[in-house]
Amino acid sequence: MPSDGLKDYVASNIDFYHLLGITSTSSQKELDRQWRKTALKYHPDKVGNDPSAKEKFHLAQIGYDLLSDPTAKALYDNARNAQLQKKRQSELFEGRRRQMKEDLEARERGIKRGREEEENDQEKLERKFRQLAEDGKRMRMERQEALKKEMEQDETEALINVNSPMANRASSVPELDRTVKVRWPVEGGGDTVRESDVKNLFSTFGKVESVTMLGPKAQKKKKQLAVICMVQYYSIVGAHTAVKDFPKQQGKEWDRFDLVFWAGNKEPDSISEQNSDLNHAQYSNTTATPLTPTRGSQSPASFLEKASRPATPTPLGVTPNGHGPRKMPSFSSFSTAAFSTPKGSPLGRGLGGNSPSLEELTMIRLKNAEKKRLADELQREDERAAAAEVHGPT
Predict the structure, then answer these.
(1) How far apart are CA 285 and CA 168, in angstroms?
(2) What is the pLDDT of residues 215-236, one digit of tens each?
(3) d(Cα 319, Cα 125) in Å, to the nearest integer?
């Protein structure tokens, strides 16, 4: 092929080295040998009517002529190296561009993810606030409902006992007469009993006004610690029922208690007078006509009501029935043991070793007053919170 015809293939994109199976540093002998092999491989007489093989045979002959000419070969190598360098630069640029693109996309995904996480955190915080508001509202409603039920229960009990003399005179009965003393040993889990447990149990006998634990005290006979608890009822009837019906109670929760008695270590005078008059009435009924009531008999409620009224003073030297003078009592017959001042207490006591002193009764009253004040304050806070929720933030 003339050299003028080779100039058209000098700057072409055809890789003649690859087609002939040689490199740019191969010798002329290697070029001749590879040309013969390539010519035999793609010769039309061998491959037949194959357009692709004929095209490769034609290009192999052009490549052989071009690489056999030193001038044409040098021009071809320069053009080929320039193309390879441009291709490498393009690939390098493409790699950098691809890396920049990937970095940019990753940065955008990170920003988007951060925004989504921030939105999720804000949504979680708002949801938590809503949940707290709903829980607070529900708790306030439950407290109001419980308070309403308690008020309705109190009204119901007041209506039931409206005709009972005890309902009208409960407030006039001294606190000591409406209080019972409960004792149980510390051993065997006695130290785990709370005031609420005692109140729930002893509400069986009547409505409990307050429960106050005085702490463990040593028993002289059994030589062990015992918890003393004062249970104060709204009515003396509840206290009397607790003392009388306690031995009839059965169950684990009742077995731990070993003593339930009056806080003053004796039965109140009003109940003692009632029992005395009842015994007198029964004796009168046995000697009178069976169906005719005795004039002197009175109901227990009337005797308690009588005990609650202040006594009419009787003049000195006159008997209560007004029939004449009476013998003046001798003050030497009174024992001074009940009026002696014990050690360690400036206020004195005369109700027994385990009975509450005046100081302890004062503490019970203070605790009850503090409980009532806290209950009123809680109710006022609930009302203010409900009002703030209705009107909203200002």
Answers:
(1) 30
(2) 777 776 667 788 889 999 998 9
(3) 85
